[in-house]
Write a structure and sequence with these properties.
Layout: H1 5-18, H2 26-32, H3 37-40, H4 47-63, H5 65-68, H6 76-98, H7 110-124, H8 128-152, H9 162-180, H10 188-202
Helix pairs in contact: 1-4, 1-7, 4-7, 6-7, 6-10, 8-9, 9-10
Length: about 200
């Protein structure tokens, strides 16, 4: 069976999720897909090139709000539903990809491994801190836009601080995601419940 670029990226993702960047070699990745080290050079000339491709595909592309969330009707209530659905869909994809060859990650959880990938981007991806900040800022602005419109349209109370409210929703998501990554992964039912509780405090 002929090896393709997608297979290389998926196997490299799993290895980077389960080990430190420095603990993964091109030889290991090549072996995982049945190539020689020379053969993998036809696709990626360095380990860093491959790591960048993995992060671009499975972190920055998957987490981009434009790819992650379906359009909402403009209300915060509908946006919360679309947000939770997008989180669940993205998380399911990461779990699926992170378990391609489970024997590589005995006892490890794909969700925790994904957080590990984020940390590696900070250290090894060229200007990774700036790129992560740009992605997080983009999602924060999306929350601000939705909340701001919801105030203007009378869905939420007038005295609400838009930016503080957006930060609160984001921090609830990030905090739950991190906490639950050490068990079975984020419970989107709990996420939805927390979001709707906050929404109930904000609405008219």
């Amino acid at each position: 069976m002929k090896t393709n670029r997608e297979e290389i990226l998926q196997n490299a993702l799993q290895l980077f999720m389960s080990k430190n960047y420095e603990g993964v070699s091109l030889q290991m990745i090549a072996h995982s897909v049945g190539l020689t080290k020379t053969g993998i050079f036809n696709y990626y000339s360095t380990k860093l090139d491959l790591f960048i491709a993995v992060a671009d595909r499975y972190l920055f592309h998957l987490q981009d709000p434009e790819n992650k969330f379906a359009p909402s009707d403009g209300s915060l209530r509908d946006f919360i539903d679309k947000y939770v659905e997008g989180v669940e869909r993205t998380m399911s994809e990461i779990v699926r990809l992170g378990n391609i060859q489970r024997e590589k990650m005995p006892g490890e959880l794909a969700n925790a491994g994904y957080f590990h990938l984020f940390q590696q981007v900070l250290f090894y991806y060229p200007d990774g801190k700036h790129k992560l900040h740009e992605w997080m800022e983009k999602e924060f602005r999306l929350w601000c836009d939705v909340i701001g419109r919801s105030v203007e349209h009378g869905e939420l109370r007038d005295e609400i601080d838009v930016q503080e409210t957006a930060a609160l929703f984001r921090q609830v998501f990030i905090g739950l995601s991190y906490q639950m990554s050490f068990s079975d992964g984020l419970d989107v039912g709990i996420l939805r419940k927390r979001f709707l509780y906050i929404y109930g405090l904000l609405k008219r």
